[in-house]
Amino acid sequence: MRLENKVILISGSATGIGKAIAKCCVTEGARVIIHGLEADLAAEVVAELGADKAVAHVEDLTNEGCPQRLVDLALSTYGQLDAVVNNAAMVSQGNIHTTDAAFFMKMMSVNALAPFLLTKAALPALTKTHGSVLNIGSVNAYSGEPNLLPYSISKGALMTLTRNLGDTLMRENGVRVNQINPGWVLTENEAKRKREHGLREDWYTDLPKVYAPAGRILWPEEIAAAAIFWLADESGPISGQVMDLEQHPFIGRNPPKDTSTIPSK
C-alpha cells in the first residue's frame, strides 16, 4: 500500500486521467477528494470508490474561493492533506487566427492560474505533512500542434510553474512539486472530441504508426500508474522534475513527411 493513510486532492477527477489517478490512489491505500464539473459523474466515482474513501466537490475551479473550499473539504473530512494533483484542464482548439483575448485568458485561467491558486491554498496543509504537488501537463508544452496554440502555451506555463515551485517549496516548506506530461491518451473526452471531428466510432483501433508506434495510444490507467510514484514516499526528495509519458521521443523526432496517413486530430 504505497499511499496508505495519505489524503490526496485531485482536480478534474470525475472523468479521464483524474478519475484513473483517484482509483489508483484508493487502491494504494489513500483517501481522495474528487473534483469536477458534473455532479452525476462525481457521484458515480465516489460510489465506485466508497463513501469512506472518497468525497466530492463540484464547482468550476476558476470560481473565486474554489481552491480554498477544496482544501477545507479535505481538512474537515479527513483532518489532513498530503498531496494535490492539478489535473483539471481545458482542452480546445485554436490558433493565432481563431484565438481572441477572452478565449486565451480562459485557457490560461483554467490550465495555469488555477493550479497555482490550488497549490497556494493547499500549501499550509502540505507543509504540515511534508506533502507533494503533482501537476498533469502535456507533451504539447514544448511547442504543440498548430491548432492547439493557447492550450500549448498554458501547458508551457504550467511546466515553468512546476520547475520554479519545485525548487522554492522544497527549500522553504519541504513540499515537493513535480509534473508528468502525458502524450496522446484515450480518455472519454478525447474520444468525444474525435467523434465531433468526424472520425468513426472506433478511430483509435487503426492509427498510423507515426502517431502510435505501439499500434494504440495510451490508457488513462497507464498515466495513473506513473502518478503513484510521484505521490508516494519512494520518490524521496525529488522535486522540480518533469517526466514525459509518450511512446516515442517527442523532442527531436522527425516523422516521415508522407501526410496521406495523418488522421484528423
TrEMBL record:
Q: Which Pfam families match?
A: adh_short_C2 (PF13561)
Residues in coiled coil: none
Q: Which domain of life is it from?
A: Bacteria
Q: Which Gene3D superfamilies has this protein been placed in?
A: NAD(P)-binding Rossmann-like Domain
What protein name does the entry list? SDR family oxidoreductase
